[in-house]
Amino acid sequence: MKVKELMPAEPEKVSSESEMDYERIRDFIISFSKDDEGILGELHDLAMRDEVPIIRTESRDFIKMLLRIVRPGRILEIGTAVGYSALVMASVMESMRDDVHIDTCEMDSDRIAVAKDFISRAGMDDKITIYEGDAEVSLEGLSGNSYDFVFIDAAKAQYRNYLDKVMEMVHEGSVIVSDNILADGDVLESHFLVQKRDRTIHDRMRDYLYYIKNNERLETAILSVADGMAVSVVK
Asked: Residue 209: how many CB atoms within 10 A of its CB?
């Protein structure tokens, strides 16, 4: 049986009034969040100025909460960008564990240069290691490691490929967070209502969500945090 035959029915398209209410709720929630300070604040502003995609405010707050619950020692991040999320995670964990380490993968050399600069300035060189190149290749090189917490925030069409490799590097109780799973709402739409250039991402993300909800090794919750997040716990 094909996966698509098992997909839930298409949700009704929300009205503009409902969309407005959602934005109001989001703005209300964000109004209680604190702005980043120091190096993190500077990096956040730089990313906004240069239009570098980084985690949204709600995602940042949610991940920080998860980290305080899980208290991981080894963290894997797929999608470094300019290092903002890695520094957020490191800043949370440094007060809880001396042995925390983050391995993060990125293929854009310009973004890596920025990330390394800010990581060094934050005094986190010994806590964060960047692996340059295609994430799937980097993951092959990290296959002997075991991680307590994994954050996936890279090429959306490749999430399933990343997860297949990640599943060889986690253990019972490991937490896997997948970001931007709603693709700005496109995932909710029919395949034919999405622009042609986005249909591959649309279809693969839908398949990915089905897969993680039905994988026997995972307990997964799909949440409407920011642009959507899936939180999976390895059984």
From this structure: 20
